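Good morning C.,

I know you're traveling, so I'll keep this short. The sequence:
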Amino acid sequence: MKEIYICLNIKAPLNKIYWAVTEEQGLAGWWTTDLDVKNNVGEISIFRFTSGAFNKMRIKNLSENKVEWICVDGHEEWIGTKISFELRSDGGETKVCFSHYNWKSQSEYAGECCFHWAYYLDSLKKLCETGHGLPNS
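The tokens, ready to paste straight into the viewer:
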């Protein structure tokens, strides 16, 4: 596995999903509450977790249908990996296709990250559909 790829439908408009993956309040509602988020391409957002882990992500793309980051600091296996959220309106719902790719190798840690991303993407779905996600806090 050199890529984590997960697609899901969320019963919410595309602009709500975009808000949830780009704005500090949105990201704090489903991923982690300890964060510093920037909103311009080239800037770095920081995400911290209760385990002591952190990720610094350079914003690569902020278009209506695609948000991309590249990890520039954090766990050594994350550095250089890329994260993408592709968003598409789909009959009153939004299709979200998430990728975490460019891993150097398949490892147990990458497998654990796959599990955690599935959890957090479900948290994103809960936030956008019900107003309450399950972020790391």
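Safe travels,
E.
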